[in-house]
Design goal:
Layout (H helix, E strand, L loop, with lengths): L3 E8 L15 E4 L5 H13 L12 E3 L9 E7 L3 H14 L4 E17 L9 E15 L10 E2 L3 H15 L3 H22 L15 H12 L1
Parallel strand pairs: 2-4
Antiparallel strand pairs: 1-5, 2-3, 4-6, 5-6, 5-7
Helix pairs in contact: 1-2
Length: 224
């Protein structure tokens, strides 16, 4: 593919996995370049206020139904790398508006990458590469949903799980930090003890000084 460049990417349409939704249900399509504050401003305006506020949706596409009344349901979608950002928007929404029922659906969407040759006169044709990427659909509803459907999450279930995880983490002692502090103190004590001892010369292990009188006696014996 060194002789080609990617021209554009075409996203194939995918039907909504939530049938029988009201016509005024907003669908927030989260993109890679979407800003969370813009997405949340729009979503909260449709769920909290009676009139939808206009917002600058940079890098995102938002399709809404007709009508300015308060919406009872909202849908978040994300494809590929934008799945994590869509989940973040859903969690923020659940903390701002309590009592929302959640229904999550996972699917695959087909993306077609169009590659064109770098040199048009080289006799190379354009290429179209299809690939399947994961996508997520999340339905948030003020009204109760079918609890038997896969992916259903009751209001407040995530908060209870989060509180339980925090309790377990607080009850678990941190042995690693205690051992690290104890090892540091022992090392400092050993270094201090060595510094107070007599200074040794490792280069002269057998060098012992003789008293001055002993050296003089040896010289007198040689003269005799």
């Amino acid at each position: 593919m060194e002789n080609y460049r990617k021209a554009n990417t075409i996203e194939q349409p995918c039907p909504c996995p939530f049938p029988d939704l009201p016509s005024d249900t907003p669908e927030v399509r989260v993109k890679d370049g979407s800003k969370i504050r813009n997405l949340m401003r729009f979503a909260l305006s449709r769920m909290e206020e009676k009139t939808a506020a206009s917002a600058d949706h940079e890098g995102s596409e938002v399709s809404v139904g007709t009508g300015d009344n308060l919406c009872r349901q909202i849908v978040f979608t994300g494809v590929g790398q934008s799945v994590a950002k869509a989940i973040t928007c859903v969690e923020i929404m659940k903390r701002r508006i309590h009592g929302l029922h959640q229904l999550t659906k996972l699917a695959y969407r087909t993306l077609q990458d169009v590659w064109e040759p770098l040199e048009p006169g080289a006799g190379l044709d354009s290429l179209t590469v299809s690939r399947n990427v994961p996508s997520i659909w999340v339905l948030l509803s003020r009204d109760s949903l079918d609890k038997n459907q896969p992916g259903y999450q009751a209001p407040g279930s995530f908060d209870a799980l989060w509180i339980q995880a925090l309790k377990e983490e607080a009850a678990t002692p941190r042995h690693g930090q205690r051992r690290k502090r104890g090892g540091t103190g022992t090392g400092r004590a050993e270094v201090g003890g060595r510094g107070k001892g007599p200074r040794k010369h490792p280069g002269r292990p057998g060098d012992t000084r003789k008293p001055p009188g002993h050296a003089g006696g040896g010289q007198e014996g040689m003269n005799v």
